Structure formats: structure tokens, C-alpha cells
Amino acid sequence: MQALFEIGLEVVKVLVGLAVAGSLAYFIAYRELARRAFWGRVTFTLISFKSTDPKRVVLDTLLDLGSDDVWVNNRLLLGQIRAAAEQCSGERPWLWMDGPTMYHVKSGIRHQLSSRFSDGAIAKAVGAPVEQTSLLTCLCAVHSKNSNSHKLRAFVFTKDVLRTIGEDVETWIENNPKKRELLKTVACLWKRYQEEPRNKPEECVLHTVRIYTHKHSA
Prior knowledge:
This protein is of the alpha+beta class and 218 residues long. The chain folds into 2 domains: 1-35; 37-214, no CATH class. The chain is built from 8 helices and 5 strands.
């Protein structure tokens, strides 16, 4: 009888735990919906220039993933990311956390990009010829006027694109008026990039991802 009672107690504990977890997930989802702040997904957005018209800025979605997938369902880290996203603004769109936490945030982004696009990593390791591309990334909380919502975007660009837009943002806005808010964000990131201490990577919000692809013979 005592054994059955203990088993029943454990079952109750499990059910209560599931109910609490479910209620918490519902509360978070409801709060994000009410605020129109959707931190449960991350859109990886490549910013580049149109090949046929270099004055035009092009956005390409590389990946659109659940935050759980990017940061392996680390509930503590996801909570810190949500809290940091709530503190972002137009003047400071990037997420900022303490050094150890930022390391894990940046690692999640870097691993997703590398695993999907760096198919030449093993070839490089064994000495085969590869093409190397260095990209900068930065996790930001941005406002979308089309849906009147806030979301997480991991911006991806080359240093040249970041510098070219950042140094003359008003001209780029004039040529791309519908991308005004995006271009202002890029200008903020360029300013931040110039101020970041290169000898203290843990304090940098922009970080480099190296992509290796197979070199094809002509």
C-alpha cells in the first residue's frame, strides 16, 4: 500500500510539473502576442547590394528558425535573450548581455551559419583548396512596420557592405526609401563596430563567421 501511495505521489508531482511548465509557456506566448514581440524565432537576414544595380540594397532570408533550435532549448539562455531583446531600441538595436552569455548567443548563430553553408570546412582541414568568405553577424531586435511587431533578426553582411552603408547612410536611404529603418539600423551597427574593442571579443556584439566552400576549377 505504501509503495502504491509513493508511486501515486510521484505521478501527481509529474503532472503538476507539466501543468506549471505548460502554463508558463502559455503565459510567455500570450505576453509576446499582446506586445507583438515575437522572440520565439530568429530570422537570419543577409544584407547585400543588387548585382545589376549597386545602389539598391537587397535582403535575403538565409534561415528562419525557432529560438529553441538555435540555442538548443536552453531555457535559461532563452529567458535572458528575451529580457535583453526587450531592452533594445532604434538607437541600440543589438542584444547585449554579459560576456559568458554573449559567447553562447554568438556561438548559436555561428554554428547555424557554419553548419548550413560552410560545406568546405573538412576540405580545408585536410588541405584541399577552398574559398573563404568572412562575414559579420549581429543579433538584433527590430521593429517591422508591415506587421507592427518586434522580432529577432541575425543580420549577416560583409564588412564592406557594413562600412559602405554606414559611412553614407543618407544617400542609401535616398536610393532605398522603403528600407529606411533597416539602413538606420545598419548605420548604428557600423558605429558600434568601430567602437568595439578588438582585443576583447567577449565585449563585441558583432562577430566574424568564416564560411569555407569548395573551390571549383574553371
